[in-house]
Amino acid sequence: MTTIYRPISDPLEYDTFGCHPFENDPATPDRTTRQVFFQRQVADWNVDMKDGSQLQFWGFKDPNVSGSDSPWPSKIIRVKQGQIFHCEFKPTKGAHTIHWHGIEPTPMNDGVGHTSFEVKSSYTYQWCAHQAGTYLYHCHKNTVLHFEMGMYGVLIVDPVTASPDSGNPKYLYDPYDRASTTEAPGITVGAPYAAESILVFDDVDPVWHKLDHNAGMCGDDVGLDKFDPRYFLINGVHNGLTQIDRRTTTTTTAGKNVLVRLANASYSRLHVTLDVDAWIVEVDGRPLRTNVAKGAFAKPKLLPKGTRLEVAVAQRYALWIPKIPRGDYRITGNFHHWITNKKHFDGQAVAKIIAT
Question: Apex CA 327: angle with CA 321 and CA 329, to 5°?
Answer without folding.
Answer: 60
